[in-house]
Amino acid sequence: MSSDELFSLNPTITKRVLAEQADNAGDYLVKAGWIVMACSGQTYGLNGSVALAEKWHEDFFFSHDIVRIIPRTDRIRPGYLFAALGHPKLGRPLVIRNAYGTSIPHLDPNDVAAIPIVRLGDTLEKEVADRMERAAELRSDADELENIIAEKADHLIDLFLHNPDSHSA
Structurally, what CATH architecture does the domain formed by 3-166 represent? Predict the structure, then answer.
């Protein structure tokens, strides 16, 4: 999965990788609860954008242009870290200020690890984390439902087109 696919709504993944032939194939995978960040591209494009990995992301082999951020859950909830890094005023500007390169700016994982995270106290952080984690779960559910509906629609269209006796004008 590339950055473009990661940040598209219900992307159609057409590329395949034979993971057994990749060196360190495990380095290209993610786990639910990790934060994934685009680390190359235009500074005000996808570069520095974040997503909260869900269970379905674990089925994909991710591009090398995705930083994997593994939250230390004893110190911070994934949903809160996701919200803090992606916040348009308090997070993302701190992320993209570290981009280097002129043609295609890049972010270094070590610079990303050093980004200060705004802390709001346990109660408020828990509420933010709960809502962000729930939103990510609902998005994943919506993607799955859209796939099921599209599959059913394709089947019905195929029946309609290939069985002219089943419908009348």
Answer: Alpha-Beta Complex (3.90)
